[in-house]
UniProtKB/TrEMBL annotation:
Signal sequence bounds: 1-19
Type IX secretion system protein PorV domain mapped to chain residues: 18-261
Protein name as it appears in the record: Type IX secretion system outer membrane channel protein PorV
Organism whose genome encodes this protein: Flavobacterium frigoritolerans
Keyword annotations of the record: Signal
InterPro entries named in the record: PorV, T9SS_OM_PorV
Gene for this chain: porV
Pfam family, one: PorV
NCBIfam families: PorV_fam, T9SS_OM_PorV
């Protein structure tokens, strides 16, 4: 096997975390990558922003507040562009607002590792075998407006991870699991202030709640799904009928147990047996109990728990609902992954078609896999229009 095979797979698994003892890592981390350029332009923010076709990933409860009856979107995100040119994330989404109180949506997300050439020996004359590891998730959601200002949604997700490479002694059957999301969204009426009108928004989403994913049909070696809690709020400054500025802040925390200190006997030295025992104890935690443990199991106490919370600040300027300019900042503790970046984005809408693009600038010493990468999204909204308030 070429060394690049292992390098690429390990890089992806580790891209969302810095290699430290208590950094939280999970299986299928592609579920946490922002697929659409609008959210990416605001530093991966979407749980409390205004509704769009990509709300399925961020907060499907927003769909019942859509002014469009139906929408379809597609996005493309190159990955690890400084190393390869065939690793990418793609997503398609469709939503339908059945009536003023009900909506449903479906999406398909695919992460491809590209083509990897394998040889059984180091003989350069040996014919290469091409494999294409990949992962995907298929989602469906239903949202219901509980009042004029508040809605909730539930989503189901099937996850399939095909990373194992077949050989005579290895079963290459893909690993799979399922998960659910529970989300809520609040949007106020337009409020008249002295010099402008405004609108408040708030939202939450508990994502990827489900059983561990097992690659070897072995419970001890099973990996946690990236269960995640997102909470956010925002405010729209509606300056006049043409100009609007939206500001938002979002917090996120993985609902996954924190790895414990491998120095089990406290003598200041970590042996191989202690490290193996620590790893076995961690992987024996059930996925349901792990969610509750995640709020208070950090060895460093409450201060370390706070470091496991990421935050983002984003802004969006809209002109006549036709042109948009976006920017944002994302922060993660250096001890828990060290992702820090600024983002810029823009969007243009003509008739029923909307095009969005975003770009990321890393401000961390840890290399971001999306650095120097343009993300593209294309959205089509059609059908009858709904009047909100």
């Amino acid at each position: 096997m070429k060394k690049t095979t292992l390098i690429l797979i390990c890089l992806f698994i580790a891209t969302l975390a810095k290699a430290q003892e208590r950094t939280i890592t999970t299986a299928v981390p592609f579920l946490l990558v922002a697929a659409d350029a609008r959210a990416a332009g605001m530093a991966d923010q979407g749980v409390a922003t205004s509704v769009d076709a990509f709300s399925q990933q961020w907060n499907p409860a927003k769909y019942v507040f859509s002014e469009d009856k139906q929408g379809f979107s597609v996005s493309y995100t190159p990955y690890l562009t400084d190393l390869v040119n065939d690793v990418s994330l793609g997503q398609i989404t469709y939503f339908n607002k059945i009536n003023d109180r009900n909506a449903f949506a479906a999406s398909f997300r695919y992460f491809g590792f590209g083509d990897i050439a394998l040889r059984e020996t180091d003989n350069p004359l040996e014919q290469e075998r091409i494999v294409s590891p990949n992962e995907f998730a298929l989602d469906g959601s239903y949202s219901l407006k509980l009042s004029e200002k508040f809605s909730m949604a539930v989503a189901g997700r099937y996850i399939r991870s095909n990373l194992k490479i077949a050989s005579e002694n290895i079963d290459a059957s893909p690993a799979s699991s399922f998960a659910v999301d529970v989300a809520g969204f609040y949007q106020s009426e337009e409020i008249a202030y002295s010099d402008f009108n405004g609108r408040w928004r708030g939202g939450f989403n508990i994502q990827n709640i489900g059983p561990k994913i097992k690659y070897d049909n072995d419970e001890i070696n099973a990996n946690f799904l990236p269960a995640n809690l997102k909470v956010g709020g925002g405010f729209d400054f509606i300056l006049d009928e043409y100009n609007k500025i939206g500001l938002g802040v979002e917090f996120s925390k993985l609902l996954v147990p924190t790895p414990q200190d491998p120095d089990l006997n406290g003598d200041g030295t970590v042996t191989a047996d202690e490290r193996n025992q620590n790893r076995e104890d961690y992987r024996s935690i059930g996925w349901a109990s792990g969610i509750f443990k995640s709020f208070g199991d950090a060895p460093g106490g409450f201060s370390e728990e706070l470091k496991e919370i990421t935050y983002s600040i984003g802004a969006e300027y809209m002109y006549q609902d036709s042109f948009a300019f976006r920017m944002g900042y994302f922060h993660e503790s250096p001890e828990k992954g060290a992702r820090k970046f600024f983002s810029l984005g823009a969007g243009f809408k003509y008739n029923v078609v909307k095009v969005d693009v975003s770009y990321l600038f890393s401000t961390s010493n840890v290399k971001n896999p999306l650095e120097n990468t343009l993300r593209f999204s294309l959205t089509f909204n059609f059908g009858d229009k709904y009047e909100i308030y």
